[in-house]
Amino acid sequence: MPLHVKVTDDRVLSFPRVWADLHGPRDLLVIGSFLVAAGAAGLAFGAADYWIGVVAPIAILSVGMALVVAPLTTAVMVSAPDSLSGAASGVNNAASRLAGLFAITIIGAVASVVYLGELKANGIPLDDWRFGVLPGAGRADHAVFEQAFLGAYQVALSTAAIWGVLAAITAFAFMRTSTANSP
Asked: What one-character DSSP code corresponds to residue 177?
């Protein structure tokens, strides 16, 4: 059996679904969204150390996403009548894909604007440059490009962190708590 199957045992992955079934999805959506925000912020302003600046924030972000996905799906599916469960599943899937598309597009656009703005502010002509393209290491102004990239990266991940906090606040403010015994 592959290692990833052992690590992601079904008993571990089913926890959020079972919790949401028993207690409602609100708590997991709030906690998970805050963890996603913390992970994104940790990546944005992470330490130079690989374990603290990269691995820890990715692990935190991953746990946050794991806590969010199952309860969100449960909330959507439970809110629809049984006769419309197929439609609810389709809408949930389409909304998930669109949200990912918008998030990548908006965060990428923010990063690009910051990157090109930094280059322009440092007098670099923007003829052939776009976000993520760095000149060769031997170029005299290579450090300017690196700093512009780092600034854009930090702003993009800070934007993601802010969205995570807004998602947690929204879940807390608008979702009702429920238990298996409530109507």
From this structure: P
pTM of the model: 0.82
Please tell me the distance from the alpha carbon of residue 69 to that of residue 64, in angstroms, as a whole number: 9
CA separation, residue 2 to residues 6, 79, 137, 181 (Å): 7, 37, 40, 40
d(CA 72, CA 128): 42
Cβ-contact 112, 152 below 8 angstroms? yes
| 117 contacts 161 by C-beta, under 8 angstroms | no
Tens-digit pLDDT profile for residues 73-132: 878 888 889 898 899 889 989 998 999 999 999 999 999 999 999 999 998 888 777 787
Which 3 state secondary structure label does DSSP give 132?
A: coil
Identity of the amino acid at 32: G
Strand intervals (E) in the chain: none
Domain range summary for the chain, segments of one domain joined by +: 10-174
Tokens standing for 21? 């079934």
Rounding to the nearest 10 degrees, give the CA dihedral for residues 27, 30, 36, 37: -150
Question: pLDDT digit string (tens) for 21-76?
Answer: 677 788 999 999 999 999 999 999 877 888 889 999 999 999 999 888 878 887 88
